[in-house]
Amino acid sequence: MSTLVPAAVLAPVNASVAIAAPAPTTTTSSGGTGSSLCPNKQSPPAAEDDSENPSPDSAPPTPLPVPSDPVGGEQLGNCGFVLPADATAKAPPSDVNAASWVLADLDTGQVLAAKGPHARQRPAALVKVLLAMVVLGELKPDTQVLATAEDVQAARGGATVGIVPGARYTADQLVRAMLLKPGADVPNALARALGGVPKTVQKMDALAKQMGALDTRVATPSGLDGPGMSTSAYDLALIYRHAMQLPAFAEAQTAKTVLLGGVSVRNPDPLLTSYTGATAATTSNTTNAHWTNLSAATRGGHRLVSVMLRAEVDQGQPYRQAGKLLDYGFSLKDANVHPVGQLVDQAPPQPQPSESATKTSAAGETASREEAEGSGPMYAAFGNVGMPLTAVAGVFLLAALAMYLRKKRAKAARAARTRMS
User: Fold this and answer.
1) Which of 83, 100, 259, 309 is most deeply buried (CB count within 10 A of its CB)?
2) Is the pTM here over 0.90, yes or no?
3) Which residues cross the membrane (predicted)?
């Protein structure tokens, strides 16, 4: 059974800060982008339960396409550690055991260091940042949402935020509560308000693609495991940065508690009280995602975000590992190292087809149009305009034919009279 554990506050915003390109001197400590060296280049690790099995009438989702050029820079296409080449740079903490992680500057978007940044993993509750962005973009804060038993059942027996079936809540209350605490009940209620779970998932996917989060495919709005669920540490850092540029999201993140029907909802993540400068902390887990964490902190005028995916607890609780990763990130900022990549502001342009391919495509479209409208240029002259012009042309043709026949009969009559005389 997949369950969710403590999540934290996150907020939507667009990026408009000056960006410094990665320096060409950056290097990777381990590389290779082939499938043998990058087992999760296309898909997350195999599921450990049946939560991702498709329904009997559905085919398994195919892997998302892998961009030919890694989003954020060439170095980020590597599968192992992606570290600054600067001699002053320290090694990453050895007791951070996440399969993938990213450290980035929220203001500049620079990726400071990473491990398997585009390796595809599962997000668990971290995907709710994306849901919050959709909600903030489509629902008014005072939109009333009626909680139902379906919302509680959506948790599959796991964690819930605590809404009560039959009670009404505002969209603003639900978003704040969702970002403070993990649970599938509130995301399900918000998804219903957005038009239903399938439609909400489509909206989340579309927004992710628009931002350039091309490793991300949502299966459930809460982050519970489901068929085709996929993301990457890079994508989640990117999504969070965009979210933090939305004033409503950034403001929601400052909340320590939220009243939900008279019940106080708090963020239970210990990082918020144990790490100096912490501004956000979200830890969650599911059977197939293992442990995931998104944390943010501010020190010395720098705002950093760390994302860890598929972490284990054998080397310390995820929040402790996140703290060590943030310490490493701030040490890199203090050393003024060159970035290894960039959190993009929007999806990179798609490859344009060659000129010959474009001409072939255009010819094919013309042929298809003519086939649909008739069979060639002569028919198209009428078919493109429609039946009225065709009818008018028919009238003219009939009139011309009648005039021709009258002239022919008159000529024949004159000839007959001449012979008689």
Assistant:
1) 309
2) no
3) 385-405
As to burial, measured by CB atoms within 10 angstroms (0-12 exposed, 13-18 middle, 19+ buried), residue 65 is exposed
299 — phi, psi (to 5°)? Answer: -150, 140
> In angstroms, rounded to a whole number, what is the distance separating the alpha carbons of residues 212 and 225?
22
Q: Which helix (H) or strand (E) holds 265?
A: strand 263-266
Dihedral Cα 340, 345, 350, 355, nearest 10 deg = -100
Cα–Cα distances in Å, from 270 out to 7, 254, 273, 312, 318?
Answer: 11, 16, 6, 17, 10
Which residue is listed with tokens 């943030």? 326
pLDDT at 86: 84
Q: Residues 28-62: pLDDT tens digits? A: 444 443 344 688 999 999 999 999 999 999 999 99
Rg (CA), the chain: 31
Give the Å distances, CA to CA, from 51 to 54, 109, 218, 243, 295. 8, 35, 14, 29, 27
CA–centroid distance for 352 within its chain: 22
Question: Percent of the chain scored above 70 by pLDDT?
Answer: 74
Do the Cβ atoms of 312 and 293 come closer than 8 Å?
no
Torsion angle in degrees (nearest 10) through CA of 238, 322, 281, 113: -20
What is the C-alpha separation between 110 and 8, in angstroms, rounded?
23
Three-state DSSP string of 294-332: EEEEEECCEEEEEEEEEECCCCCCHHHHHHHHHHHHHHH
H helices, E strands: number in the chain: 12, 12
C-beta separation of 317 from 32 below 8 A: no
Judge contact between 229 and 220, C-beta under 8 A: yes
Percent helix, strand, coil in the chain, to 5, is: 40, 15, 45
